[in-house]
Amino acid sequence: MPEWTVSRTRSQELFQEIAHWVAGGETSYARQMGTFPLVIARSEGPFLYDEDGLRYIDYCCGYGVNLFGHNPPWLVEAVCQAIRIMGPHFAFPHRLYAEVGERIAAFFPSIEQVRFANSGTEAVMAVVRLARAITGRPCIVKFEGAYHGWADPVCVGWQASSGEGPAPESAGVLPEAVASVLLCPFNDLEAVEACLEARGLEIAAILVEPVLGSGGLLQPAPGFLQGLRALADRYGALLIFDEVLTGFRISPGGAQALYGVRPDLTVLGKILGGGFALAAFGGPRELMRPVAEGRVVHGGTYTGSPTVLAAARAVLDRLAREGSAFYRTLAERTERLARGIEAAMHAAGLVGHVRRIASMLLPVFGPSSDDARTYRDLVALQDAARYRRFCELLVRYGVFAHRFPLGRWFLSAAHTEEILEESLDRIAQACMDLARELG
For a tag site, which of 67, 105, 146, 271 has the least CB within 10 Å? Predict the structure, then answer.
């Protein structure tokens, strides 16, 4: 029996106490997926420590937020200094508005002005509203497997259990709330063109994750994003890049820099806030004018607080200093981990491969296929039950990864070569355990 399962008494007791007062024992539908609910006491670098003092190498990284690892001292100091001077919140403009906005624009030339929000969900809600106001059109094109937050206007997708048609992704979402969302397969430019030909005069925007995150790390096929840009221009729709996941993760300037496609509007989040609740949306001044003039309502009590913008300034300054070498190192380490996981799978006699882009990866318990271009392709490839069990076994060996079958593993700057070596030893043991269970 691995040492990490010897004693988890305190964590189990505390989780029951939490669940008594908090519905489900947590505050996000995706966090506790499995029989080993973790209650975390502290974090540092690549590690989480639970209430029993057990240590876990973390490949969730706050769902991709912590690019520099958990609790970096320079980030903590930047935030504490801002709080000492300005306090945590006062709901007025302050100099950090301009300082962070200017830094975002330096990384993203498509953005001349921004507005701040508390989450990616909020920012997407605002940018969809803005697109509809600019164009006077009601409909949004969304892609199968894309995640744009949990709000009603975008909470629709293709579900394997619901047949071929799109369906609300949550109970309580009314069909009429998503009736103006048109669903297309990712990487199928012909389907998008057909949709626009049929309903182009109704479509305000094409909303796309340039790389599908929760859709299995699907990269855009050559020409796909460029084709979306051309179709948006032809039919008078806006092209919106949801770069909550990819912004500052796959390159300093996000997917739009990596793939050379300029959207009209962009949504940012996760890494931007350095672990604090911050997102942003932005674009050219002309497109942001309806927000600036108050014709499109966007607000929030905590938007743009000194606390979160001090964190953002520190993160953006750090990225500017680190430069491209930082991303090369992260990509090389991710490649090493991916190849090591594949080797562990094969040594245990398991069929599997690892999908990877930049510092994100996804183990897939299914055969590798160069033909996997859409969300449905990856749903068919991944053995969901086997993947979840693999993650359960990893927890026993002190490694945490998100249990969602098409989710992502993230690396941070704190995942050193030594941490990778230790991780691969434990991953190999988990693969052997899984193979024995499968017989």
Answer: 105
pTM exceeds cut of 0.70: yes
Report in angstroms the alpha-carbon separations of 396 from 4, 69, 297, 404. Answer: 5, 22, 48, 17
235 is catalytic: no
| pLDDT exceeds 50 at position 307 | yes
Helix (H, G, I), strand (E, B) or coil at 266: strand
What are the tens digits of pLDDT across the range 115-129?
A: 999 999 999 999 999
Instruction: Tell me the HSE value of 360 on the side-chain side, using a 13 A CA sphere.
Output: 25
- Asked whether 46 and 70 are in contact (CB, 8 A), the reply is yes
Q: Give the side-chain half-sphere CA count within 13 A for 133.
A: 19
Compute the distance between CA of residue 63 and CA of residue 105 in angstroms, rounded to an integer: 24
Q: How far is the CA of 105 from the CAs of 100, 114, 176, 268, 337, in angstroms?
A: 9, 9, 37, 12, 33
Instruction: Say which of 59, 147, 235, 375 is annotated catalytic.
Output: 147
142 is catalytic: no
Nearest-5° Cα angle at 318, 315 to 322? 140
Answer for the pair 150, 170: CB distance below 8 angstroms, yes or no: yes
DSSP-derived secondary structure for 166-228: EEESSTT--GGGSTTEEEE-TT-HHHHHHHHHHHGGGEEEEEE-SSBTTTTSBPPPTTHHHHH
Domains of the chain: 3-64+324-413 (3.90.1150.10), 73-322 (3.40.640.10)
Are 211 and 178 a contacting pair, CB within 8 Å? no
Say whether 242 is catalytic: yes
Which of 270, 377, 387, 397 is an active site residue?
270
Q: If you average pLDDT over every residue of the chain, what do you get? A: 93
Residue 32 scores a pLDDT above 70: no
Spot the catalytic one: 50, 242, 264, 377.
Answer: 242
- Residue 355: strand pairing partners: 362
